[in-house]
């Protein structure tokens, strides 16, 4: 299956690993950071390179996590890294040095291109995104302006210039609901485990968890019931869910926990390695990393435990 794909083979696992990007060997990490620095220089910016970011002489900070993951995931290996890095850095520099889209686009066009994004708290500056809404522990909803070559996540300052935050969010959610479902797969095995996956090039695919009931209706023909659904959003281009109706939730929970952890690892736009219980728009985390054993474990509270017991009592395949 595509979501279990392995990364490209490069230096062996026995080579010393980079402390920040463990999927790189020390040699590969030095090659990556050196190419990033030289690419910025070619485009007229001298930067100081740190483990996971660079800083230019005007103290502007640029993260390297997504770019490193893009390079790591490309099966063609290190020979294409210069091309990938140049494309990314060129977009960053042009967006930074050119006029802001907020200044050049008409207000109605800006509103038509607004979307909500669910992001990890690691990817945003809390001081600049004070309006961000908590979706789940460590996950936040922010507003983004979709542009032809990039996505601009809007800060408090940017939103204040656009108008009322609540009205802007409502418009962004309407825009999200209007997006097409690019690709849909049903994952199942012989033992009855199954869950749905939405995939797409859109940066807002995983963020459709904010409209999960609508997405479920579109791809399965049925609304989510009173018990809600299991859901996972490992990175920005994938959303998985399993409507909770009967005891099929039990194998689905374990499979989706593995799916989320696998999809999250070493991917650009990573969101969460965990599976959640979606109920009426509220997300409750159901898996976590076991620090002692070094693997995943399922964790359930009283409400979810009670739900499991009721589903077991009513028997399989109850509708």
Automatic annotation (TrEMBL):
It comes from the Bacteria. This is Uncharacterized protein.
């Amino acid at each position: 299956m595509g979501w279990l794909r392995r990364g490209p083979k490069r230096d062996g696992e026995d080579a010393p690993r980079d402390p920040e990007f463990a999927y790189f060997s020390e040699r590969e990490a030095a090659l990556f950071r050196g190419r990033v620095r030289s690419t910025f220089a070619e485009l007229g910016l001298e930067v100081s390179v740190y483990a996971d970011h660079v800083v230019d002489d005007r103290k502007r900070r640029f993260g390297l996590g997504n770019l490193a993951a893009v390079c790591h995931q490309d099966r063609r290996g290190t020979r294409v890294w210069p091309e990938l890095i140049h494309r990314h850095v060129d977009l960053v520099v042009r967006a930074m040095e050119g006029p802001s889209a907020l200044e050049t686009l008409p207000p109605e066009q800006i509103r038509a291109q607004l979307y909500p994004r669910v992001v990890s708290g690691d990817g945003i500056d809390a001081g600049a995104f004070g309006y961000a809404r908590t979706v789940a522990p460590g996950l936040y909803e922010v507003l983004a302006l979709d542009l032809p070559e990039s996505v601009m996540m809007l800060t408090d300052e940017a939103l204040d210039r656009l108008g009322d935050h609540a009205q802007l969010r409502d418009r962004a959610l309407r825009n999200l609901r209007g997006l097409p479902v690019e690709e849909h797969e049903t994952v199942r095995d012989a033992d009855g485990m199954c869950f749905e996956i939405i995939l797409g090039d859109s940066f807002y695919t995983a963020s459709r968890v904010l409209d999960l009931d609508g997405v479920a209706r579109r791809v399965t023909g049925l609304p989510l019931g009173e018990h809600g659904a299991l859901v996972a959003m490992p990175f920005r281009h994938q959303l998985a869910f399993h409507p909770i109706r009967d005891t099929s939730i039990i194998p689905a929970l374990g499979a989706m926990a593995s799916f989320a952890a696998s999809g999250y690892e070493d991917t650009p736009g990573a969101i969460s390695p965990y599976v959640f219980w979606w109920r009426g728009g509220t997300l409750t985390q159901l898996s976590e990393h076991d620090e002692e054993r070094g693997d995943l474990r399922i964790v359930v509270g009283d409400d979810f435990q009670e739900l499991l017991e009721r589903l077991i009592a009513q028997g399989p395949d109850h509708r």
